[in-house]
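Budget justification aside, the reviewers requested a transparent look at the raw inputs and outputs of the sequence design task funded under Objective 1. We therefore reproduce one unedited record. The lines immediately below are the structure tokens for a 256-residue chain.
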């Protein structure tokens, strides 16, 4: 595709647009007349051309030769670009670093790479969408949206883990009474010994105090047995030694 043209440094774009419109109107209305008489629009209005301009007006009767300033003046600085330049729609900078293909000036990266010029390595959990219809841009989500991609490796945000940051870590670090087992989508705690709960936050009682014959204090892990039951886990049925002695009426004396 070949381009050429000009640009203006005017700070008043509406003024510039109006001047451009006037110029285009003049050339479209008068160009045929000027061509017939072999006159350039750059000649019209110059002091050197004034006498010839009057003669041509009398000869043709065309108002095109009455213009003393046929080329409108821009109040802003205007620069004309010399020559032409070529925009190759199938060539991108650095040839997309040989990591993608170029189309309409946009690099479409191969799997494993991303960036304007495919200059970066993707991470596990990366997904890119290309928009070439309007803006020729690409948007990428890295590390499942829960981390930053650093040279192909995910740096997961707090609360997420795994190569692609797709797994949620265990809450409260299992209260340091268990090991976090990574699972998708939510990891689980494998608690040590007598600890239990989703985050190993409770202390378990032996045999759960043989409920309903006793209740467990999950803070201490000690059973409180119902009447008629005793033992560490409330598994013994009968009287306690103290109750047996009391019923026998045997006094216990402490001799000092």
């Amino acid at each position: 595709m070949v381009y050429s043209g000009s640009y203006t440094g005017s700070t008043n774009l509406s003024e510039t647009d109006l001047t451009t419109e006037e110029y285009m109107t003049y050339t479209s209305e008068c160009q045929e007349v000027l061509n017939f008489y072999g006159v350039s629009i750059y000649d019209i209005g110059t002091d050197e051309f004034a006498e010839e301009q009057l003669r041509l007006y009398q000869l043709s009767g065309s108002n095109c030769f009455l213009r003393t300033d046929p080329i409108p003046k821009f109040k802003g600085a205007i620069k004309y670009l010399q020559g032409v330049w070529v925009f190759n729609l199938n060539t991108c900078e650095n040839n997309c670093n040989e990591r993608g293909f170029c189309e309409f000036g946009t690099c479409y990266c191969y799997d494993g790479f991303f960036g304007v010029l495919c200059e970066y390595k993707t991470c596990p959990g990366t997904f890119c969408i290309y928009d070439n219809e309007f803006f020729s841009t690409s948007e990428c989500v890295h590390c499942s949206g829960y981390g930053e991609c650093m040279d192909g490796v995910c740096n997961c945000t707090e609360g997420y883990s795994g190569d692609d940051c797709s797994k949620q870590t265990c809450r409260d670090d299992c209260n340091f009474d268990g090991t976090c087992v990574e699972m998708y989508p939510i990891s689980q705690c494998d608690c040590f010994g007598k600890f239990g709960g989703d985050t190993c936050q409770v202390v378990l009682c032996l045999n759960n105090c043989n409920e309903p014959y006793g209740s467990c204090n999950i803070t201490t892990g000690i059973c409180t047995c119902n009447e008629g039951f005793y033992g560490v886990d409330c598994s013994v049925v009968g009287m306690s030694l103290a109750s047996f002695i009391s019923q026998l009426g045997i006094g216990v004396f402490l001799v000092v």
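Helices lie at 13-36, 50-60, 241-248. The chain has four domains: 2-80, 109-154, 169-196, 205-241. Computational costs for records of this kind are itemized in the attached budget.
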